[in-house]
Amino acid sequence: MSALAVLCLLTAVTLALGYANKARCTGPEFNEWGRSVPDYQVRSYRDVCYSDIQNLWVGRDIDRHVFPYVSGGIDEDGSLWGGVVEYPVLTGVLIWAGALFVNTDAGFLLSSALLMAPFGLAVAWWLGRLSRWRALLWAIGPPLVLYADHNWDLPVVASAVAAVFVMHRWHASLARRSTVAAVLLGLGFALKLYPAIFVLPLMLYVFTEGGRDWRGALRVAGSAAGTGLLVNVPFALAGFQGWAASFEFQSRRRVDLSTNSVWYWGFRDWTGDDGFQAAMGIVSPGLMLVSFALACWVGWLRFERTGTYPWVQVSAAMLCGFLLLHKVHSPQYALWLLPFFVLVHVRWGWIAAYLVADFAMCTGIFRWLYLNNEGMPSGVHDGFTAQALMIGVWGRAALLVGLFVAFLSARTTIEERTSGREESAETSRYRIRNLG
Q: What does UniProt give as the signal peptide span (predicted)?
């Protein structure tokens, strides 16, 4: 059996364990809406088996099999109705497809897990082709058990990894590779938005590899933007109010416990103030843009030193800035970062520390919610639950700062598999530039 087959088999086992972990919250009986009973909410927090997939079965018309966005909208209080979900359109379609032939939240969880499993397997295969044995970090990594079926994130991770695979393993011209990669990032934008931030470093890579190729860089931007528009326009035309409601929901989202970001845990006493919430609408995206600009600038300095723009490392650093500074930091976002641990050669200590902090945050937040809801003592001095949560939240935040720097100074594991002919070509190009 080939190494890639073993890798995919291990990933399948891990995905099965991830499903089994979440399935502990389903059944054993169901009410008239197909919601698991008894004590669904209590069990999901107490037993740390909560998933957004199961939770959103009721409340978004998913259980009624309403096709998303075509009808519906958002109320003054921020409630969505008429089939609208708070995700970009392709994720909304996946949600609808997963609910199409089921009538309970347990069936929805299972069908959604089966629908997303091929994306998780594809990521394993692509990472194995790119970085060989380091792909085990994805295949047997704890985040895949914790979050594979927590939300609908495997397809968007697949779009981002596929873009890297196309750029570095497809034997075609730079123009064709970068155009297809940009299309994949555009599809990622239509799934969960975040792959769109990788378009800029890809543009800079194409610009520098092509010898100040402005047309190539603009083609990347146009391909990504055009793909995003092409996917979204039909929904906007079919039901503009419902389509726009998903974006409005995110723009109006307040910093609160559900966002689980450093902004909440650092300023939780201020979250009830409308002035603070308005300021977060400016401060959070503003700081994210600063982090993006800093990452791209450091990447440019490295290009001037080495002759190659490190677009993968810059993308990884930009993602760290996004995760740290965005208003929302959901637990499953660890899946977004996990492939970069495979693709970029950072020290194992960084990876191990992040996985430990993430596990502490994941288990801590749900156990803490359980204690709060049951009226039990839940302060930092009352037990290890709150302590683990704080270790997770602030340890993860500190590690994201460190990883931002570590990614920008590291080499990729992809470069280690570059052929000698390609290496000599890159070296020659760099020497010519410097001699010139």
A: 1-18
Block residue for tokens 């037990």: 383
The token pair that represents 122 in the structure block: 């594809």
Q: What angle do CA 399, 306, 431 make, to 5 degrees?
A: 170
What's the CA gap between 220 and 210, in Å, rounded? 13
- Which residues pair with residue 41 across a beta bridge? none
- Mean confidence (pLDDT) of the chain: 93
Which residues on adjacent β-strands are paired with residue 74?
80
Bridge partner residues of 37 (DSSP): 29
Closest of 328, 200, 353, 352 to residue 257, by C-alpha: 328
Question: Is residue 392 within 8 Å of residue 364, measured between CB atoms?
Answer: yes
Range 13-26 average pLDDT: 98
pLDDT tens profile 276-290? 999 999 999 999 999
For the segment 381-412, what is each residue's pLDDT rounded down to a tens digit?
888 999 999 999 999 999 999 999 999 999 99
- Say how many C-beta atoms besides its own lie within 10 A of residue 53's C-beta: 24
Beta carbons within 10 angstroms of residue 66's beta carbon: 20
Q: Residue 121, SS3? A: helix
At 308, the amino acid letter reads: T
Residue 413 contacts residue 343 (beta carbons within 8 Å): yes
- What is the DSSP secondary-structure string of 355-395? HHHHHHHHHHHHHHHHHHHTT---STTS-HHHHHHHHHHHH
- Token look-up 């660890």 returns 334
**Where are the chain's structural domains?**
1-49+106-151, 58-103+153-253, 254-436
Burial of 282 (0-12, 13-18, 19+ CB in 10 A): exposed
pTM over 0.85: yes
